[in-house]
Amino acid sequence: MTKMNAVGWFDIYTDDLGRAAQFYETVLACKLETIGDPTGEMQMRAFPTEMTQYGAGGAISHSPHARPGPGGTVVYFNCENCATEEARVEAAGGTILRPKFSIGEFGFVCLCQDTEGNIFGLSSMQ
Predict the structure, then answer these.
(1) Closest by CA position to 47, among listed 61, 62, 63, 30
(2) Which end of the chain is least crowded, N or C, by CB within 10 Å?
(3) Mean of pLDDT values over 28-52
């Protein structure tokens, strides 16, 4: 079996796709791209992804089959300095759950909650 990265894709589920897109575009200072769903069941906006780079692509998604909320899987977004993105969270309508803290040799993270109730992390080496 060929070794590969453990995560190939992620979905962050939303109740309000527009609100969630605006939140992540503001916090991460990026533009999410509308993408199609082959099943026609979901509306999706993808995070910028360079498929030849290390890491996984993903999207915020509105689906009749899944709901947003805390307590599940946490997605960590890579940043140069997670304090920069953390500083945008509350103005974008989110909540900082645990401000930037050290995780030793692996850098720093902070934990936040988006406008949909999903918990996510920001991660950086500085």
Answers:
(1) 30
(2) N
(3) 88
Q: What pLDDT was estimated at residue 37?
A: 85
Do the beta carbons of residue 110 and residue 82 sit within 8 Å? yes
Please tell me the distance from the alpha carbon of residue 92 to that of residue 10, in angstroms, as a whole number: 22
Contact 31, 46 (CB under 8 A): no
Q: Which structure tokens are listed for 87?
A: 């500083």
Q: Which helix (H) or strand (E) holds 122?
A: strand 119-124
Rounded CA-CA distance 50/31 in Å is 14
Place of tokens 């605006």: 22
Q: What six digits make up the tokens of 113? A: 């909650």
The tens digit of pLDDT for each residue in 2-21 reads 776 777 789 999 999 999 99
Name the more confident of 83 and 63. 83
Strands 33-35, 43-46: pairing kind: antiparallel
Q: Is 51's pLDDT higher than 70?
A: no
